[in-house]
Amino acid sequence: MDVLRDYVDGTFEGRYVYGDPAYGCNHCMICPFASPDADSNERRFNARMSKVCEAVEWSFGRLKILWPFVFDDKKMQVRRTPAGKLFYVAVLFTNCHCCMQPMGNQISIPPMSKDEWDE
């Protein structure tokens, strides 16, 4: 995390990354509250953040299903393959795939028409 702290150079000022407590909590990464009281703001915070984390995990699950090579550590090697760029392209195509599913997305927004994509 020291490398991250040196790299961000104020980027996270006033902002936080919500993550698993296994990674450690610090000035730019917050974690769920451990054992909050039953009727507390801490428990409500944990519940709300848990819903967001589930949605992110679903997205990674879909990425793994559609583009398994992106997660293959034998094929994706730093300085040998453009792993970061391929991941971004996989995310873009996954978003396109989700938008083109008329009934299969988790949000209640109809997909954009092909004309709207061209604009």
Automatic annotation (TrEMBL):
Q: Which domain of life is it from?
A: Eukaryota
Keywords linked to the UniProt accession: Metal-binding
Q: Does this UniProt record's set of keywords contain Metal-binding?
A: yes
One Pfam entry name: DDE_Tnp_4
So which cofactors does this thing need? a divalent metal cation
Q: Which GO MF terms are attached to this record?
A: metal ion binding
Q: Which positions fall inside the DDE Tnp4 domain?
A: 10-95
Q: What is this protein called?
A: DDE Tnp4 domain-containing protein
What species is this protein from?
A: Aphanomyces astaci
